[in-house]
Amino acid sequence: MGLKDDLTGEVSQIFREAWTSRKGQVVPSPDKLRLGNDRVELDATVLYADMARSTHLVDNYSPEFAAEIYKAFLTCSARIIKKRNGVITAYDGDRIMAVYIGDYKRTNAVKTALNINYAMVEIIRPALKVQYPSKDFVPSHGVGIDSSTINVSRVGVRNDNDLVWIGRAGNHAAKLSDLRDGSYRSWISDSVYDRMADEGKISGDGRNMWEERCWKAMGNRRIYRSSWKWSF
Hints:
By secondary structure, this protein is α+β, with helices and mostly antiparallel strands. Helix content is 36%, strand content 31%. The model has no long low-confidence stretch (mean pLDDT 94).
């Protein structure tokens, strides 16, 4: 049998096979799911952190310089995510995805976003300027966060597979991370804002750190943006 016959049989099985499903209390690893139609359902908050202007970076600067900026951003983001009890689920070029679960998931994710903004402004940019004073590139980023029920499945082939995250939160968080508007680098959905703790909303001097906006591209959904930084 050739590849066409193999794929025809496998695709037919995917559409024909009944699903097994269960509620999850932890973010699963790939070995906890079958390659067949098996899924875990989670009530989760998803965060995407994405570098801005990465195409300009790789098109106009040396590979070594671009790689150092990628590494600095992803290292800071990963360390902060883990510190805030997030689980890193994917790296994709200049982007990192994390999932948060539990009663404090929205607030943890929001604090992560504001911590990442602090790291970019107060750590990465100053260190870059010290090492490369003649370079004019100023790194920036975006973070998007949404909450919803998501379904986790295992995809791929034997010995070469990973998890796929199916649900609104993953899709909308990724799109939110692509929004660019001046110094506003953190974007969250109404599902996050409405149910996070006040400590993620209100500053120490009583100001709301978030501004409401209308997301016309997504059916006029209510979203919020912030330019605030949260130090460690």
